[in-house]
Amino acid sequence: MNIFAIILVGCLTQFSGIGVIATAISKLELVDSSGAFSSSVSIANTLGVSFTGILLGGLLARYQGFRIGFFAPLFSSLMIPPLIFTNNIYVILAIVFFLSIIIGLDNPNNNSSLNKMIKDKKDKAHTFTKYTTAMQSSVIVSPLLSAGIVVYFGHEISFMFFMLFYLLTCLPWVLSKELRQLASNKELQSQNLWCGYKIIMDSPALRGLTISRILNNLLFTGLIVLIPMMVAKASSTNEQFTFIQNVVLSLISAGFVVNGLVSNNILKIHPTLASTFAKMSTLFAALAIAVSASFGFSEYSLYVMALMIGWGQFYFRISGMTLGQAVTPQDHLGEVILASDTLVRGITAGYSVCLLFLVN
Q: Is 80 helix (H, G, I), strand (E, B) or coil?
């Protein structure tokens, strides 16, 4: 039951976050029909998560568990109202940036909380597979709902809808006794800000895994940042842009989920196959680029590309979760996740900014 509660938290967090981001991407297309401003949303998201790791690692060390789990979605919901009343790109990107800072705390906190609830180490790969598959399933629905609400009721109602779901994310933390009792089991020390980075640098296995994540993320990030501009060329109205863009986002999640269902059964029988997932992730990212480029980034080639991205992202996510946790001290899992995410997303954020300037 408690594992179900944290899985529900993860689903609601992802559902709300992707809904707000999808709505912001659509709204910025009204300001710039080329899709360049919309692409900037992904960059603001990546920079926000990176900023969290650089400056707020100590916050995770001290307040992980209930306090971050409850207050992060609450603060996120309070930041959404300004999005309802402005079309200013800088205001929208700033809010996305600050929401992403909170997401940067929320995700490692949820992962660390789930890890504490898994009693048998043999169940970790299987449980985290179910966890990530469940989260991505919620993300299939979120962009489609966002598209429907935007087309029929407007961007304002869409933002209000996902603000409500951010508030609902707080409830499992209140209703579950075990989640309420989750807290950091160590005192904050001055070196905790850099604790995760030190552990990565001291561990050859974690160093190699982080480098692999960076290289894979460069492939996936480049594709995802450019998607709004690809969609802009294939659409003529904001409604059409919103539909194609959000279907692409849903198909990315669908590819992730289908692979999750397949790999979940395989890992039950052959758990060691998780060690091959990093290489498989690279393969599917390359295939996605090749297929979409071969057909001139047409609408339907974007859909095929999205499925391949999702399929590869599953390998990417699970390889980081399972392999990283196997070689990480359990008392510092949250800090290592945060430090690794900062390194990966920080480098890819800089790459994304350069890529956006190159294609414009």
A: coil
Calpha distance 319→263 (Å, rounded): 12
| Residue whose C-alpha is closest to residue 342's, from 171, 208, 214 | 214
The residues pairing with 65 across neighbouring beta strands, listed in sequence order, are 183
| Three-state SS sequence of 87-116 | CCHHHHHHHHHHHHHHHHHHHHHHHHHHHH
- Alpha-carbon span 273 to 168, nearest angstrom: 37
Among residues 99, 119, 118, which one has the least CA distance to residue 169?
Answer: 99
CB 327 within 8 A of CB 196: no
**Single-letter amino acid code for the residue at 202:** D
Joined together, the tokens standing for residue 342 give 């900062």
Closest CA to 103 of 182, 19, 222, 179: 19
DSSP state of 323: I
Interval 98-124 mean pLDDT: 80
Nearest to 180, CA basis, from 4, 5, 14? 5
Instruction: Say if residue 82 is exposed, middle or buried (CB neighbours under 10 Å; 0-12, 13-18, 19+).
Output: middle
**For 6-62, how does the pLDDT look when each residue is reduced to its tens digit (9 = 90+)?**
888 988 998 999 999 999 999 999 998 888 888 888 888 877 877 776 666 667 767
The label of the residue with tokens 């900037």 reads 40
